[in-house]
Amino acid sequence: MIRVAAIAAALSMIVTGCSSKAENGSDGGSGDVATDVGVEGDTITLGVLTDLTGVFASIGKDMTNGNSLYWKTAKVCDKYTVKLDVQDTQYVPQQGVQLYSSMKSDVLAMQQTIGSPINAALAKDFVADKIVNFPSALGEGLTEIPGTAVLGPTYDVEMSNGLDYLFRKNMLKEGDTVGHIYFEGEYGETGLEGTTHVAKVKKLQVVEAQIKPTDQDMSAQISQFKARGVDAIALTVAPTQLASVAAASQAQGLDVPIVSSAPVFAPGLLAGPTAPWLKSHLYVAAQTSTFEAHPDLYEQYTKAYPKEKSASAGVIFGYGMGEVMKQVLDAACKKGDLTRQGVLDAFEGLKMVDTGGLLVPIDGFTLGRSPSLYSFIYRPADVPGGATIVQDAFLGQFAEALAGS
């Protein structure tokens, strides 16, 4: 599904002024700023390819709201307002390709592109168009795409940190058996790589269960796990499957801890019948903090979106994405170059990204290497955002070996 896009022709150069001081307090530079695509006057347009109606609709909506909330007040170079062109891919790669084709001549960069499959389908387009892209996905293959900012540990590193936490808390021991349910494709398979790596080091037995995103009933997989005597369950799926895993485990008496990648949990699950089971069994390895640690952001969000009944860590991730994009655009503006090439150059020079604790520490973006080795661990709870941190951002014992070159 990966295709090569034609380079947009006849891009006009627009010269505008930039203020002498950027919003973050750094020198914004002075004089004219070169622009080409996605900048009109004092407005920068960024693209958002999200999931509002597919399998990751709940978190997709929260991340997009987080993006929008950030840019309500933030400006690039104290001058440029940012507008978002938001499109719903429904988590369908072909839909994502078509939507990007319709927006690419109007956007400077991609603030969000949800899902490893859609990012893979658009990889060559992004490279050909010199687009800086922030995927709301942590696939290992995404780190190999120039201009792609994976904002956290790759899924294998993330899962290994989650399993490491279970070892630290004596919920797993050497020689145990772990059942892993995972989506086909890079998201699920990269998460499985984390489990299999830990298994080799700790002599674990792994019971694999690959599913499709459309599969919703996990009863058969839980029956298999119970028959194999698993001591823990690992998940790289979506909230729908998590709810089924919890219901089936409870019904079949499989009383073992569940460790998941960040996209698996949504706070809306705490309004359902499996809420008590999730609170007592689920551990989420994530690249984002929680609202407990950022109450001001929660207050800001609820005021901006009063009709939203729940807000997940996806809001924090989306807000953090905006902060990282601003750092890139401010750096490009400081150098007097808000062309796509200028933004790409600024991105490639970004090191040691600090988001004030919204996201885990990010070392920078080296091709083929996980941008971070750290994960938060949180659990479902009746608090704002539906999750409470039980382990602040930490580097697990297996992470470095999985990080890449």
From TrEMBL:
Can you tell me where the transmembrane regions are?
none
Keywords (A to Z) from UniProt: Signal
* Signal peptide limits: 1-21
What InterPro entries would the database entry show? Leu-bd (IPR028081), Peripla_BP_I (IPR028082)
A Pfam family annotated for this UniProt entry: Peripla_BP_6
Please tell me whether the keyword Signal is annotated for this protein: yes
Organism domain of life: Bacteria
Q: Which PROSITE patterns match?
A: PROKAR_LIPOPROTEIN
**Where do the Leucine-binding protein domain residues begin and end?**
43-355
Family to which this protein belongs = Belongs to the leucine-binding protein family.
- Under which name does UniProt file this protein? ABC transporter substrate-binding protein
Instruction: List the source organism.
Output: Cryptosporangium minutisporangium
